[in-house]
Structure prediction request, 84 residues.
Amino acid sequence: MSTVLSSFDTWKKFLGDRVAAAKNAGIGEDTITKLAFEIGEFLDNKVDPKNEEERVLKELWDVGSESERHCMASLMVKLAEQNQ
Prediction:
């Protein structure tokens, strides 16, 4: 995973591939967004950002309310979809 986190572009591509795989497996957009929120919570608590973009996302996540974090998760899914 460290290679994936070394570059933000690599991270977006990785996420895009995973979102596409989930959709191909029949997982709906709402479920994918809920999973993105859970992954965001995990990353916030367990993973130190590896680049400036990840640091910005972490800082925004930290100051956001739960509903704002859900919005960020949804936006990350959309960003990932554009980068597959």
In short: The chain has one domain: 2-82. The mean pLDDT is 90. The radius of gyration is 12 Å.
